[in-house]
Write a structure and sequence with these properties.
The structure is a single chain. The chain is of the alpha+beta class and 82 residues long. 46% of the residues lie in helices and 18% in strands. The protein has 4 helices and 5 strands, in the order H-E-H-H-E-E-H-E-E. It has a 3-stranded antiparallel beta sheet. A two-stranded antiparallel sheet has the order 4-5. A hairpin with a 7-residue loop joins strand 4 and strand 5. Helix 2 packs across helix 3. The longest helix is centred in the N-terminal third of the chain and has 11 residues. The chain is globular and about 50 Å long. The model has no long low-confidence stretch (mean pLDDT 89).
């Protein structure tokens, strides 16, 4: 492994795993909405007994879909700019 690869691994190891409940609290929504985001592929996750989400993945999702309506993750729409 190169020094750069080791440094990237160290940074990644600092990333926090969040439970569905923690993600729901962070987003101020219910757990079923988090599962909708996960099942639709909008929010990447992994399963370690239960579904977990990397905090960095959650933040990337929020940046990617800023200005969008995620009410129905299967039909993402841009919000009207008035």
């Amino acid at each position: 492994m190169t020094d750069r690869m080791l440094e990237e691994l160290r940074v990644d190891m600092k990333d926090e795993l969040m439970t569905v409940d923690e993600v729901a609290k962070f987003l101020h929504c219910n757990k079923s909405k988090v599962y909708e985001l996960v099942n639709s592929g909008v929010l990447p996750c992994l399963r370690l007994g239960r579904v977990k989400v990397l905090k960095s993945s959650l933040l990337k999702m929020l940046m990617k879909y800023e200005g969008c309506d995620l009410t129905n993750p299967e039909e993402i729409k841009y919000l009207d700019k008035r």
